[in-house]
Give the backbone structure.
Amino acid sequence: MEGQRVDTIRSLKFDGKNFLAYKEGLKAALRARKCWKILIERETKPEKDGTRATKQKRKEYRNKVLLLNDILTNTLDDGTRVRLAHLKNPQAKWAALVDDFEKKSFA
């Protein structure tokens, strides 16, 4: 098993009923990919300052946002995916999911 990477994303699927389990699985998968803080907006896109290092960090950030969008879009059921399609970034999609489903999960 050494050297093999387990693709935890394949097993994640939000069906409108299992939000807390989905959230915990997603959080673990995104932390492993160093993307979770971007999704919950604790990490933001670096400001331009003209340096190569910052340019590289901005590129890495953009790539992580693309990855987040891919993961979120492809782990949602069809109805939820369509309902959130108008939102322009993964952070907005995540905020809508939390608003819509987290409180219902505790009820």
The mean pLDDT is 91. Residues 14-106 form one domain. Residues 11 and 44 are 28 Å apart (CA to CA). DSSP finds five helices and no strands in the chain.
